Amino acid sequence: LPFKLQDHEYWREEYLGKDPDQPEGGEGEGEEGEGEEGEGEEKRIARRENHVHLATGQDHPQERNRKLYQTENENHEMYPTGLESEDSGDEESSNDEDEDEDDEDDEDEEIREDMRARVENGYLPSMETHIVLWKYGICKFPDDVTRPNHLAVIDLRYNLIREFPPEMRHMKRLVHLDLTSNRIETIPESISHLKRLRGLFLSNNTIREIPVGLCSLGKLEILRLDRNRLLQVPWEIGRLSRLETMSLDCNRLTSLPPEMALLTRLHTLTLKGNPLILCTSSRVRDVAPAAIGEAPVSLFDSDEREADAAHASGRSTLHRKGHDSLLSFLASQLLFQDHSYRELNKVPTSIFRSTQLQALSLRQNLLESLPEELEGHTNLRLLDVSHNRVEKIPRAYTSLVNLQELNVSFNQMINTASQENSYEDLSFPIELGPALRNLETLLLSSNRFAFLPPALLSFPLVRLDISHNKIKKFPRLHPDVKMAQTLRLLNASCNEITELEEETVAALQVIEELLLETNKLSALPSSLGQHADSLVLLWAGQNRIQQVPSSLGRLTKLRSLRLEKNRLKLLPVEVAQLTNLEDLNLFNNPDLYQPPQEVIVRGCRHVVSYMQRLHEHKDVQSRTKLEEEEEEEE
């Protein structure tokens, strides 16, 4: 069974579990099973398929429901719609649907109770390799799991299980075990029998100790123990030679063993929410690895007594230089480092040792500046320094040529030059423009920008968030500007923008989502109609817009339009052409009379239908007027 590090969701298909005591035909078949009772049993079986889903090759039930929901929405759009007369039976039908949903919910609960009772009694649905039972209130492992079987995946998350089965030697083929969000307090030593296990997920339990037996799982690649009550990590953890991802967030760890430096394949280690402290003694197990903080203050010099104790326990001693080099080696192998929520006012020097670093999170600290030493990390792809006190981006970051995402939201960045001399702005040095040629996502929300730094126009941005600033005017864009050629999402909400130039909007060649809420716009540019092949979302609520351009009707791919809290009086009849529209908000426009409020409150579909009828009426009037003019000429 292939095991992917980032995609361990094996269940994509399902089949019905069958009670071995039940005959082949089932209760709903045959002469006695026909009629209403037979149909009810078939419905129960069909619904049970949604709850007991095992991997056999079809869509996951949630995915299937999502597709069904989309299909229903598409069908609704095909129904004939009118203003009022055509929906007289809608309320009755909706009430019937609500009653059906209530009945289905009752059957839902009946099926869950039935399955819970069967599992508690030792019944396991017929399966080959996978079992997935979520949120069934199961208090123990099904009995069949502890018997010889071919299970590869067991997923019993969100239940009430308190302990592992007493005997696990029969689960020799198991590669994935997920007991997230249960009530497990201890991990038995017998877990060492699961020699093929590659993924172990025990988050959100009450585990206090990691057993030595777990450290003998030589094929383990993912270990998640976050949100437990761990006080320490055993030094034997260094035996997990294939471990690649380890999560220990939100525990009670004060230190980590230096043997973790032996985990040469480890590239993701998360330790948020632990009271980790630096070393204050000379013992090895009190030294915090450089991978999660500063370099150790003191290093280990073993005496004879310590060496004898280590030799008796099978633990190798580390001399000063060897220990230091191992810690540095571990730090150099990490691809992702998370130093969030640590109240740091200085970046840990251990970060600079990680030569392979690809993602770095420093969010929610007290940093006032960014270290220029990061310039050597040319492999860095993601940098998150949000929720700090940063005022500018160092000029030295021109070397971060592979950077793809930069998050500087919720800081104190401010323009250091006037808009007339914007190229002297040091918040984003102009040299960064051509250097960061791979930057696709830039998040600058909740800062103090009065205008957009010119360096940003040279980035090949796909996503730009400049919301919650003090920007009054968006810079003029030309089609040859790099950002205009690549930008797909622009969030400029919550600023002080008074006008969007026609030329600027027309230059955004592939724009898909445009958010302009809570500004001071008095009108929307008519050049929006030029983006008929790309624009799918337009939000311009809470502005001062009085009129919507008729070119808006060309946006045939538009799916979401929000114009609430403006000063609109009417919508152009061309809105009738927005046949793909799914979300429309026109509330709190007190002077709006076309469409009327009684149509608006009934939803998007009714508004579009109303505008379509107006559009047809307009066409009829135009033809009639034309015919009258021709008759007069004759």
Fold and architecture overview:
By secondary structure, the chain is of the alpha/beta class. The chain is 22% helix and 9% strand. Helix 8 (502-507) links the parallel strand 14 (489-491) and strand 15 (513-515). The chain is flat, with a radius of gyration of 32 Å. The N and C termini lie far apart (84 Å).
Outline the biggest β-sheet.
18 strands, parallel
Helix segment count? 10
Order of helices and strands: HHHEEEEEEEHHEEEEHEEHEHEEEEHH
Helix/sheet category: alpha/beta
Shape verdict: flat
What is the number of strand segments?
A: 18
Provide a compact summary of the structure.
By secondary structure, the chain is α/β, with parallel strands linked by helices. About 20% of the residues lie in helices and about 10% in strands. Helix 8 links the parallel strand 14 (about 490) and strand 15.
Keywords:
single chain, 634 residues, alpha/beta, 18-stranded parallel beta sheet, 10 helices, 18 strands, 22% helix, disordered N terminus
